[in-house]
Amino acid sequence: MITDLFIDSADPKRAALLTYSDGTLPLSIQPAWRLYLSNPDQAYAIAQGCLAGCGYDPTAAVADAAGDADSHSGWAYLIRALAQCRQIGKTPDPKKIAEDFAAAASIFRAVKDPRGLRLSGLGNAAIAMRMGQWPDALREFEALIGHFDLSALDADNFYVCFGLSTCYVYEGRLEESLRFGYAALHLAEQLDLSPEFATAAMPLGVALMAAKDPQEADTLLAEAITVALRANSPLLTKVLRNNRAVALRRLERFDEARAVLDQVLTDDAPMVGGQHFVHYNAAELCLKLGDLVQAEQHFTSAQRLLAERGSSGLDLIKLHYIDGAIASRQQRLDHAIDAFNKVDQMLPEVSALRFNDRAEFYDELADVLSRAGRPEDAFVAQRKSSRQYQQSLAVVNRVRRFSMQVREEIQQVTKDLRHESMERRKLQAINLQLREQVNLTLSEATRLRDQVSHDGLTGVFNRHYLDVALPSLLQLSRQSATPFSMVMVDLDHFKRVNDEHGHAVGDDVLINFCALARDCLRGSDIVGRYGGEEFYLALVGCGTAAAQQRIESLLAAFREISVDTDVSYLGGLTFSAGIAVYPEDGIDVRTLVACADRRLLLAKAQGRARIMCGESLVTH
User: Fold this and answer.
1) Is this model's pTM higher than 0.70 or not?
2) In sequence order, which residues have a C-beta less than 8 Å from that of residue 283 and are 6 or more positions away?
3) Other beta carbons within 10 Å of 57
4) Helix (H/G/I), strand (E/B), else coil: 212
5) What is the pLDDT of residues 121-176, one digit of tens each?
6) SS3 158
7) Cβ neighbours of 134 (radius 10 Å)
8) Which of 86, 277, 519, 531 lies at a 20 to 30 A Cα distance from 308?
């Protein structure tokens, strides 16, 4: 866990600062080292000048370290390579960058500089990260973990933690991104490393917003902007402001978001990822404010910028989404549907973390389809929204708890770092126990997440899902003027089954009924366990006649199944059912459930194995 990254021997802060500021790092190259994150162009120029001063060719790396090569030239090659990976306004040359890393490693190996050699190992990961090859970058960073002592409060650990945090964001692994993001942030705070703090805040802020915690993201990003301004880094300041504008928009603090975004739009510094991200942000804010003219202008600007550099993946999804949202508000419904369908087709290509407002997107698509007179398609979109909401709810709740736990751990660790070394060693033992407890807690949290909406025995939805999800489906039926049937089912003589054959056989009967119900009904119908041997069936788009036919077929099929009781087979099973139909019998889920339940009781009172709809029996 996080605590493993920060506990060290006596006075670790002093040791790390010495490692960072002198020792293996030559004095003349230190300014470039401190600048490569915040001002990579300046760092590149200093490293270039140092190489020329050493007598090395400043335009091309020499992989074969000369006999008179010293650590100074190795650090110059390393910083030049790292600076190129950070430069935004220039097209990177991965071959040239790789040559610089190789030259640095060759020199460090010759002069026996272990720290320089270890940092040169960042080469493949840094190049892959700069080229946007995130799976490759993640593999390289994960392979580096064993070469860095992450138990030490050492500034060099920052680069691995920051790289892992960024890669995990792009790969959609939210908990890992938060874990290493907070680790990088903590290192920067403890060692007073301003550019590193501002840099770490970028992926961490994105991860917090993906965890639906824009308030924490805003607090972090506001502090990071102050640090970036103090470090005189236009590059970091611009991207942090853009990200903070997103957080403010999600907090619905629109005036503040516009003020911050105006600063970004008037800033001519290069933008990490590209200037089009600023226009995406501005267009979405204008849509929230109802300013369609400005939204269209920013959409056009983003489109133009992407036409110049080419676009794919998330960029195209963003373009189509904004295009569709503008068209929807302009009542150009066919155009909006076409744009939104493109988004729908492309969403599987990107992680949920990189486009994490999927439920809201499908809600908007359902609304446009409904207004266009396509209720069946609107229903499909609304179902997708419900599924995305359920998935997002489980993930976000878990991740936010994890984020809070990590922050609490870091606060505790920060306090403990001020204690004597004996107290620190005691804490290490406690941390080991805490890690084991947290791992057990996370495993239990995963299990509980699955229980939120599903019945543990049968695998069908539970009563909680009835309360949470069905109102939205009923709302869709109301909007599209389509029927909706709620069926309450009770298995007949179930107590007798348990008493005569045992609860294991009773469980098999319940499982068999649910499997049969899912086979007999449509994929859009919902099967849920209400409690005990009582179930609910939600038949979307079914009126009285269609609902009767489906439940009759289910009852006939249930009579035909047989359940193994070890000594024989139990057959001839039946159930009783009550059907309530929207809107004749009620206009909300609670009323429909109550009506269906009353009719279920009437069916049981009149002999069981019956289906009651309206005031008459359907079958027996």
Assistant:
1) no
2) 294, 295, 298, 299, 302, 322, 326
3) 9
4) coil
5) 999 999 999 888 889 999 998 888 777 766 666 788 888 889 998 998 888 787 78
6) helix
7) 18
8) 86
